[in-house]
Design brief:
The strands form two sheets. The chain has a five-stranded mixed β-sheet. Helices cover 37% and strands 21% of the residues.
């Protein structure tokens, strides 16, 4: 597969044309995952050594390899097109025409400005136009786009755009409430603040429908 085809698969559009999409270079997939791990391992070793750490210490000597594998396979795994979830849809045979909300989806992402964690919850909703998607696929879509260097506003948009494409409807919304450790653990070090962003498509732009969505996600679920 050509590089251009891979990038189209990961972003579904020209990745250079909009801030809505992750800023990937045209050669982003020329290196294999193994080559990326090897290169990142050397960089992490250099960073720690520059900071004055003794890289021969038993506790540290494996750190560069662990960090490199974590970056490629886990924390930034959402940059890999092969990890994009296959979100199959099904006919809405039971004719449920109301809003469906999947709330409190855990978000683990990484701020692309400081490479520090973003941790929070996403609340996703759609109104069926004749098809439905498996509930777990909504969680997987959130996780896929979260697992890359991110800006929270972009994450909101990417989740909504992907579900709009999968569901073939504009009637999709997503709200994210998350803590940014670049705010909580450095700089101003405000440990209590969180950031709330929203993206509303189709019917969710209507104030009444938007209010219904907001009411749903404020419900307290207990088991």
């Amino acid at each position: 597969m050509k590089i251009e085809d891979i990038i189209e698969n990961i972003e579904d559009n020209d990745h250079l044309s909009s801030n809505e999409q992750t800023p990937l270079r045209s050669d982003a997939f020329e290196l294999s995952d193994a080559d990326k791990i090897e290169s990142i391992k050397k960089d992490v070793h250099h960073i720690l050594e520059t900071l004055g750490m003794d890289m021969t210490d038993d506790s540290l000597k494996g750190t560069p390899n662990r960090v490199a594998k974590m970056f490629v396979n886990e924390v930034f795994g959402g940059l890999r097109p092969d990890k994009k979830p296959n979100a199959s849809t099904f006919e809405n045979k039971y004719k449920y025409n109301e809003m469906l909300v999947e709330k409190d989806i855990v978000v683990y992402s990484t701020c692309e400005h400081h490479l520090l964690p973003i941790v929070g919850r996403a609340h996703v909703a759609y109104i069926s136009n004749g098809s439905v998607v498996g509930l777990s696929k909504m969680n997987r879509i959130v996780d896929y786009y979260a697992k890359r260097p991110q800006v929270q506003e972009r994450l909101n948009i990417q989740i909504v755009r992907e579900l709009q494409k999968v569901m073939n409807t504009e009637d999709v919304a997503c709200i994210i409430d998350a803590k940014h450790l670049c705010v909580n653990s450095r700089g101003i070090r405000d440990i209590d603040s969180s950031t709330v962003t929203g993206e509303f498509g189709g019917k969710f732009k209507d104030p009444i429908v938007k209010r219904e969505f907001l009411d749903y996600i404020q419900m307290k679920t207990k088991f």
